[in-house]
Every structure is written in structure tokens, then in C-alpha cells.
Amino acid sequence: MVQPPSLLWFRRDLRLTNNPALQAALRDGKPIMPVFILDEESDGHRRLGRASRWWLGQSLTELDTAIAQLGGRLILRTGPTLATLRELVLETGACMIHFNRRYDPPGSNLDRQIIEALRGDGLAVEDHAPNYLHEPWQLQTNQGDFCKVFTPFWRRLSQHVGPPATHRAPRAPHAWPACENWPSSGAIEHFQYKPAWTENFAHHWQPGEAGARHRLQHFLEDGIDDYPSKRDYPAIEGTSRLSPHLAWGEISVHEAWHSAEPAKCSGAVAFRRELAWRDFNMHLYFHYPDLLRQPWRENFRKFPFRKSAAMLKAWQQGRTGFPLVDAAMRELWQTGWMHNRMRMVTASFLIKDQLIDWQQGETWFWDTLVDADPAQNGANWQWVAGCGFDAAPFFRIFNPVIQSVKFDPQGDYIRRWIPELAALSAKEIHQPWAVPEDRLAATNIQLDRTYPRPILDHAKARQTALAAFRQVSGRSSDAAEPDLFS
After folding, report:
1. How does pLDDT run across 317-357, given as a tens digit for each residue?
2. How far apart are CA 351 and CA 279, in angstroms?
3. How many CB atoms lie within 10 A of CB 40?
4. What pLDDT, in 10s, does the model give residues 290-309?
5. Phi-psi region of 287 (alpha: psi -120 to 50; beta: other; left: phi over 0)
6. CA distance 331 to 83
7. pLDDT for residue 24 is more than 60
8. Side-chain half-sphere of 201: how many Cα atoms within 13 Å?
9. Is 130 exposed, middle or buried (0-12, 13-18, 19+ CB in 10 A)?
């Protein structure tokens, strides 16, 4: 008699090691049928950005190969999730479904509907902990509310995280508890989305569990000790670059957390704080479902943002005339990623210099980041805009020239992404518009032809932004608004 299989439903947990749903399915002892469903039709599913689709295709290819080496198959389907799961149950006779739950409000709402419907069909359905350090209902303030400020959240989270349950992936060939009858699957090639502008991504990334593990090990061996002092400098590899691997669940965040033991490396606490920010942003989104649609601070809902397609396009294309901003936007386009400090600089420029709605920036990042995540995107854009929880004050307006001098002092980052300015000296490269004409001619730079002049005056833009802020906040003067350029 053929034993009915368990469906193992993969989502943003594309790994075999330390995967709670897989471990539960293995404990059941039934044949395991791994499934991935690309659902861009159901309510609650935000259509993936193009960069994320590229990463997903590569990661699924790696997961499919890993499962095949163990004697299994990854079943790929597209369509509405509930209907697709029901089809698979009918085709395979599956009696159990395991998956790792989601915390984003649209996703968790859909999960509840799916669980209720499938249990109503008579199936056993088990959801398991996803790739975060805590469950969002676990950490509360002394008043019993959810945490809206990072520092107390960090203290509570640090005390809450316990030793991880370490589960190795099946290792030996034919170790996968395989099924007798496999249903049809979509071709992996149909999931490998490769728009022309992503052709260089493969030079910068190795999607999949093996790439995630290599990235973590490299960081632990060569980067974490200097992490606090180097993480703000975009020209050097001072960060972990784990964000897309964590976003797609290719490595356990618990493993990353516990690999960085404070007793072993000086940068461990700083690294763990960044992992905690990831949890904090998800925590906020879970408790504030309008994170992507509405500012938390209600007065910002009337902020007089501009609508300028030309200004937005200049920012998107890295043609603002401010080299640090443009270098960062070009890094994003060519690699699908941007250094964290550069994300703050470019976001501040869009919102406070150009006075363009933060949601326009969030939408662009969603489409072009390989680590795009709704909670991280929404919370971080609201943080820079000054309209979210525990946000930077609105009057913290980054000066792109001072940021450039401070964090790219030799201009190496700018030269990497804006080669047309490479001949300028470390002193000149931050403000090419201030370089004498004869010097520009000697370096074959023609402003407004080979590189644009600034599209705005930062000092004037800052004053305009502060006036708009006073308009919505009711302040009568900016006496308490320091000129923050750090």
C-alpha cells in the first residue's frame, strides 16, 4: 500500500538546514513532497520586484539541485495558493501539510484562511516558526503594548533569544523520504527570471543555501572584528552582505545570531543589533498593517510632497549630479543591492531634498533590491522620512557632499560606479561642479554632457523641506532644528 505523503510547502525559507517545517516533516516519517508555489494572484501577495524574481529563480535552482541529490524532487507550481495546494492534495493523496508561517499582515491573514480551509477539507496542517528571532506577540512593553522604540525592544530581545535547535539537513544520497508518485512540475527555467539589466548580478551574488553559508563564514572569519569601524564605508567590504540570504531564508537567523558570540569577536554585539533591527521592523509591520500605505505619524499624511516624474527619474537613474547619491543608485541598478549608509543617504535625498513621497522610493527599492522585504522596506523608509516609529527626526537631512567626504574620503566608491569622474582627485570628486573649467576639460568631463550638474541646491532644498515640515507639524520656527549633516 502506498503511504500518503506530507506536503512540505516552501516560501521564504529556501534551505534544508535548520528548517523547522522540514524537521517536523522528517519526524512524521512519511514520504515528503517539497513544493514551491509562485502566487501573484491571491489577495495578500504583493507582486515580487524584478530583482527579487531574479534571486528567487537562482535560489530555487539551487534548492531543486540539493533536493535532487538526496533523491527527491522540488515541485514547482504557479497560481493561487489555496487552489494549488488543493490540486496537489487531490493529485497525490497527501494527508499532511507543513510550512513555516509568515508575519506580514497580508501573508498571515492568507495563512489563516488556508489553514482553516484545508483543515475543513480534513487535512492535518501544521505551521512552524519562520526565520526570525522572536514571535511578534512575545515582546511587550511594561504597559502590555507592542514595542515601538528600538532600544527597549533590543534589551528584551537580547534576553529572549535562547540556544537554537540545530538540525542538520539530510546528507546521504537517497536520504530524502521520497514519494512513490510525483505530480507534474513547472520547468525550473520558467522560474528563472532574467531581465537584461540583471545580467551582472551573478558576478556579485551566489544565491542559495551554499552561498549563504559561504557568505556567513567569510564574514565571521574576515569581517566581524572590524564591523563596528568599517560598516559605514561603502568602498570597502565592511558589512556581512547577508541581507538577501536572510530575506529568502537561505540561512537561519538563529544560526547567524549564535555564530557571532560576543566572547569570540569584538563586532558581535553590533552585528546582532543589525539582526535585531530586522526583527524590530517585522515586529512593527505585524502590529501596524498600514506600514506600507500610511505614515505612522498622522501629521505627515498631509505633507506637501511634489509630483515630478523628471526628478524621480534622475534619482532612479543616478543622474542627480551629486556623485555619492548617483554612485549608490547605480550600485543598486547594477548589483541589486546598496550599502546600508547609502540607503539612508539616497532616501534622505529623495524625500527631503527632492520632496518626493517616500512611498515612491519604497516602490523603486522593492523592484530593484534582491533583499526586498516589505517590513524592512516600509519601516526603513518611514524611519528616514521621520514619519514612522522610533524614526530619525525629519530635520536630520543628510548633506550629500559632507557624507561623501566623510564616508568615501578618497572617492573610491564614486569612481567604481561613476567611471566618468574617475580622473578627478579625492578633493575634487565630491563636487565636480566646483572644479575649474580648465581642470574639467583636462579630464574630459563636460558637465551636463558626460555628467550632470546638480539638479538642485542642497542648502535651499533643506530650507524648503524644513518649511514644509513646520507646515505639517505646527512649529513656528526651526530654532530647535539643528543643521544635522552626520
Report:
1. 999 999 999 999 999 999 999 999 999 999 999 999 999 99
2. 25
3. 12
4. 999 999 998 899 999 999 99
5. alpha
6. 40
7. yes
8. 28
9. buried
Q: Where are the alpha helices (DSSP H) in 121-267?
A: 150-160, 209-222, 227-230, 243-247, 253-259
**Collapsed DSSP state (helix, strand, coil) of residue 480:** coil
How many other CB atoms sit within 10 Å of the CB of residue 222? 10
Inter-residue contact 364 to 316 (CB < 8 Å): yes
Q: What residues have CB less than 8 Å from 317, skipping those under 6 apart?
A: 329, 333
Helical H segments across 45-139, by residue range: 50-69, 81-92, 105-120
Q: How far apart are CA 410 and CA 406, in angstroms?
A: 9
Yes or no: say if 193 and 53 are a contact pair by the CB < 8 Å rule.
Answer: yes
What number of CA atoms fall less than 13 Å from residue 255's CA on the CB side?
A: 22
Does the pTM of the predicted model rise above 0.90?
yes
Outline where 70-208 has alpha helix (H): 81-92, 105-120, 150-160
pLDDT in tens, 308-317: 999 999 999 9
Question: Which residue do the cell numbers 528563472 mark?
Answer: 192
Task: Please tell me the distance from the alpha carbon of residue 299 to that of residue 305, in angstroms, as a whole number.
Answer: 13
Domains of the chain, CATH where assigned? 6-130 (3.40.50.620), 132-164+208-287 (1.25.40.80), 298-473 (1.10.579.10)
